[in-house]
Write a structure and sequence with these properties.
Number of helices: 14
CATH architecture: Alpha-Beta Barrel
CATH class: Alpha Beta
Helix content: 40-55%
Structural class: alpha/beta
Order of helices and strands: HEHHEHEHEHHHHHEHEHEEHEH
Number of domains: 1
Radius of gyration: 19 Å
Oligomer: single chain
Length: 311
C-alpha cells in the first residue's frame, strides 16, 4: 500500500517537474529484461526487476518523443551534443535475448539504444546468477522480500564466490535456461543483433562483476576480458562501459580510462547537464535513471524532466 508520505513526495516531484522542466540535458535510462506481458512476469522464470513489458517500453519512448526529446546513441554523445538540446539515451544491461523484443519500438521512433553485454553469459549460455537464485528460492517457497535480502548479500561478493555457492546449493542444471525469457543472447544472435543500425553494444564486464569488490587488477581484467571477447565477435571493441549494479569508485574509473573507454555509465539518479564536462573522468561517471513497470510510466517520465533531487 502507498503511504500518504509517498503520495506527497510523488506530488512534489511532479510539481517540481512542471515548474522547472526540460532544461538542456542528457537523460540516460536503464532497462534490464523486457517481458511480453504481465502473464510472463508471473511465471517467475527470472527476477522481475523493473517488471517492464514491451507495452511499458513503448509508452516510455512515445512520451519523450512527444515532448521533443531526441534519442541519441553513444557516438553522438562522444562527439559532443548541442548544449541547447534535450536528449535521451536508452540503455539495457546484461544481454538478455528478450531485449530483441524492443526492436519494433526503436524502429517506429528511430530511436537508437545501447545494449551492455556480460560476455561470459553469452559465451557459456548460462543464466544470470540472480535469476538462478530468484527462481530456486521462489520454488522453495521464499517470498520476494526474503529473496531480496539473500540477493543483497551476493552483491558484496566476487563472481567466482557467487558461482561456487550457487553451484553447491542448486547444481549446474540450475544455470540452464528454461525459455527465451531467461536466456542470454547467443554469440550468433548478438552478432546479428549488433548489425542493426539502431543497436549499439557496450561492455558490462565478463562476469557481471561488482567491480568495487575487486582489487585494481581484478577490475581491469573483468573489463578487458569483455572487451576482447566483444572485439573478436563484432570486429570492434565498445567505447562505453556500464558498471554492474552501478558500483564504481576512483579505482574503477581509472581502470576504465586506462582501457580507453569514452563513456562510463553508473546508476546515480541524476541528469547529465550540458555541455558534458570535457574531463574524461566526468564522462566515465554519467548518471542514469530507472523506471518501474509497477508505477504510471508518464508520471515517472515527467519527474525526470524536472530538476528534483531524485535520490
Amino acid at each position: 500500500m502507498t503511504s500518504f508520505s509517498q503520495i506527497g513526495k510523488e506530488y512534489l516531484r511532479l510539481a517540481s517537474a512542471r515548474v522547472s522542466r526540460d532544461q538542456p540535458a542528457l537523460l540516460i535510462f536503464l532497462f534490464h529484461a523486457i517481458f511480453t506481458d504481465r502473464e510472463e512476469i508471473k511465471k517467475d522464470l527470472i527476477a522481475p526487476q523493473q517488471r517492464f513489458t514491451v507495452a511499458d517500453f513503448a509508452r516510455f519512448v512515445a512520451y519523450y518523443h512527444h515532448h521533443g526529446y531526441r534519442f541519441v546513441g553513444p557516438a553522438e554523445v562522444i562527439q559532443g551534443l548541442d548544449p541547447r538540446g534535450r536528449y535521451v539515451m536508452i540503455t539495457f544491461d546484461d544481454g538478455y535475448f528478450n531485449n530483441t523484443r524492443v526492436l519494433p519500438v526503436l524502429e517506429k521512433y528511430r530511436a537508437p539504444a545501447l545494449f551492455f553485454i556480460t560476455s561470459d553469459n553469452t559465451r557459456s549460455q548460462h543464466c544470470y546468477w540472480w535469476d538462478v537464485l530468484y527462481r530456486q528460492l521462489r520454488q522453495a517457497g521464499r517470498n520476494r522480500k526474503q529473496i531480496s535480502r539473500a540477493m543483497a548479500a551476493f552483491f558484496r561478493q566476487r563472481h567466482d564466490e557467487i558461482e561456487a555457492k550457487l553451484l553447491a546449493a542448486f547444481g549446474a542444471r540450475a544455470f540452464t535456461p528454461r525459455a527465451d525469457t531467461d536466456r542470454p543472447l547467443s554469440a550468433g544472435e548478438l552478432t546479428a543483433f549488433a548489425r542493426h543500425p539502431l543497436v549499439h553494444i557496450g561492455n558490462h564486464t565478463a562476469h557481471h562483476a561488482i567491480l568495487t569488490n575487486y582489487d585494481p587488477d581484478g577490475i581491469e581484467a573483468e573489463m578487458r576480458q569483455c572487451q576482447a571477447y566483444l572485439g573478436r565477435l563484432l570486429g570492434e571493441e565498445p567505447a562505453a562501459v556500464a558498471y554492474p549494479h552501478g558500483n564504481c569508485n576512483e579505482a574503477v574509473i581509472q581502470a576504465a580510462a586506462r582501457l580507453g573507454f569514452k563513456l562510463g555509465i553508473t546508476t546515480r539518479k541524476q541528469k547529465n547537464r550540458l555541455p558534458l564536462n570535457a574531463e574524461p573522468a566526468a564522462r566515465l561517471a554519467l548518471g542514469r535513471f530507472t523506471l518501474w513497470g509497477t508505477r504510471p510510466i508518464a508520471n515517472q517520465c515527467a519527474i525526470f524532466r524536472g530538476n528534483w533531487n531524485y535520490r
